[in-house]
Amino acid sequence: MSISIQVPMSREQARSLRAGDSCLLSGVIYTARDAAHKRLCELAAEGKELPLDVKDSVIYFVGPTPAKPGEVIGSAGPTTAYRMDAYSPTLIEMGLTGMIGKGKRSKEVINAMNVHGAVYFGAIGGCGALLSRCIKKAEVIAYEDLGAEAIRRLEVENFPVVVIIDSEGNNLYETGRTSYLESRKG
């Protein structure tokens, strides 16, 4: 059974989720990849205002393909998350509560998630065309010069994700593997 989450998502909501939870996100999320993350962190370091309010926000690590005529967005599959690891702790400290990507995260990111109350969601790579059907509106809000990697504001409905790492540091990539291996010993 999936947990329906209206985004933005509070720290309390993020802390209530556990690794392995299937969730359906509805509301507003943002896109950003490494080049955009770098710019956001540079602005933060300079004490300048960011082009989006990261407090209680969820950022999807994606560089969507161009939309075909009549579509809101092109294929929108997740990007490997470790590219954002140098920047995510800063944004989590500023209030970011959720990230969507694929792949492992660093100890520094997991520690920031634990201290500040954030989660890392996984979206299934290779399903970008299907995931794009859950995106009802998309608009570039910053860094248009980055093309596919510009920051977009997305309105999503029942966007499917799984909690990979929760705010307590439980990691589905580790617990799932262990559980599977234990089940095979029988």
Structural features, described:
The structure is a single chain. The protein has helices spanning 11-16, 34-45, 88-93, 107-116, 128-132, 172-185, and strands spanning 3-7, 22-31, 58-60, 98-101, 119-122, 135-142, 151-165. The protein has 186 residues and is α/β, with parallel strands linked by helices. Helices cover 28% and strands 26% of the residues. The protein contains six helices and seven strands; from the N terminus they run βαβαβαβαβαββα. The model has no long low-confidence stretch (mean pLDDT 95). The chain has a five-stranded mixed barrel with strand order 2-3-4-5-7.
Keywords:
alpha/beta; single chain; 186 residues; globular; five-stranded mixed beta barrel
Q: Brief description of this entry?
A:
By secondary structure, this protein is an alpha/beta fold.
